[in-house]
Inverse folding.
């Protein structure tokens, strides 16, 4: 089998890696990575996948000569995952043990808790647990693994929170606060943030990828700003939560131009300095609290966001995992356990290559 993707930037760590799609396998490669064509001379923000897992956010570029290029972050681990993903069958089908799968994901873990979890499974903890479950000697363990997966999966795949709201709602100011550095351009000039910007932060024990988006202005005057809004809609597709900032005193700020599907949305009143009448009273919505004021009281704003986001995702404020404890590390494992509970052991047997 040929390569679906060729790396055309030098191998090794780099800011950006460029992968060219092999023309003869273009259709299969796009399908394997969960992507679709882009017209010649255009580019689109995309999230290539390996099975259920989103590998990265990058650009799919339709080059003037008709070829397609994928521009992604230049980590060697990521590039290898993309090359593997484009090459075809997933690792389970290739016959890798659970231990090997866990070990190879350690370098890509987004936090030390995730890396430790993977190291334990690399030592065989999950394998033993699955054997016990299949043998009927591990009462309650399947439920415990599933309960923990709901929470611990964010140690392996940071939660993605997209900031949306009208222009000047304070999205970029909050984004900078949550990632702890000046990153996104903030300005009172409406329409300053034109691209979706991604930054890593933490909420309690959980790594978070924050995505700052262009504001929502109907009839945005510049094509580049409209393109930014399109990026926002795409970013929402794979998000765990939409955080909508609603500036105080904004009469029609509860409209929802972004189509969110089943992604939960959290409303946070923002720019508390502007309020004449608190929005919470006006809307009658019990979910509205005192607005945050990121400039006047950043600590309180951070604390409010942490409490409300963790609450919305039903996550605990603190979480400790016992050492050498079995844990799921892939959605396919959760699916296999659910199938087992429904009376079908085959997916679980497949994971153990029995
Ligand atoms: N007083 C006050 N000003 C804010 C707050 N958040 C943002 N701003 C200001 O509002 C303007 C727009 O903020 P920005 O973050 O760029 O909004 P965005 O368009 O939603 O990204 C900037 O001048 C910010 O300094 C806040 O909580 N309080
Ligand atoms: Mg902005």
């Amino acid at each position: 089998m040929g390569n679906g993707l060729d790396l055309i930037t030098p191998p090794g760590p780099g800011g950006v890696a460029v992968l060219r799609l092999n023309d003869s396998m273009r259709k299969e490669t796009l399908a394997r990575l969960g992507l679709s064509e882009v017209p010649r001379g255009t580019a689109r923000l995309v999230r290539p996948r390996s099975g259920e897992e989103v590998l990265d956010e990058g650009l799919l570029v339709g080059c003037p000569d008709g070829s397609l290029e994928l521009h992604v972050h230049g980590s060697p681990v990521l590039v290898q995952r993309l090359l593997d993903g484009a090459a075809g069958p997933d690792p389970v089908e290739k016959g890798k043990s659970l231990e090997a799968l866990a070990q190879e994901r350690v370098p890509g873990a987004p936090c030390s808790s995730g890396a430790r979890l993977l190291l334990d499974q690399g030592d065989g903890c999950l394998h033993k647990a699955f054997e016990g479950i299949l043998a009927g000697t591990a009462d309650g363990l399947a439920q415990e693994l599933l309960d923990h997966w709901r929470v611990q999966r964010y140690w392996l795949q940071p939660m993605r929170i997209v900031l949306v709201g009208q222009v000047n709602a304070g999205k970029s100011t909050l984004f900078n606060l949550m990632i702890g550095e000046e990153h996104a351009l903030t300005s009172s000039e409406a329409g300053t943030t034109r691209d979706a910007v991604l930054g890593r932060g933490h909420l309690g024990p959980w790594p978070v990828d924050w995505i700052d988006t262009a504001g929502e202005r109907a009839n945005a005057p510049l094509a580049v700003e409209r393109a930014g809004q399109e990026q926002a809609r795409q970013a929402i597709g794979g998000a765990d939560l939409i955080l909508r900032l609603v500036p105080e005193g904004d009469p029609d700020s509860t409209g929802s131009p972004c189509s969110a599907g089943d992604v939960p949305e959290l409303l946070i009143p923002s720019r508390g300095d502007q309020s004449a009448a608190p929005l919470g009273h006006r809307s009658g919505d019990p979910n509205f609290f005192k607005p945050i004021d990121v400039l006047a009281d950043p600590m309180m704003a951070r604390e409010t966001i942490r409490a409300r986001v963790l609450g919305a995702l039903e996550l605990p404020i603190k979480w400790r995992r016992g050492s050498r404890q079995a844990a799921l590390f892939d959605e396919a494992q959760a699916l296999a356990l659910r199938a087992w509970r429904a009376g079908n052991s085959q997916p679980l047997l497949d994971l153990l290559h029995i």
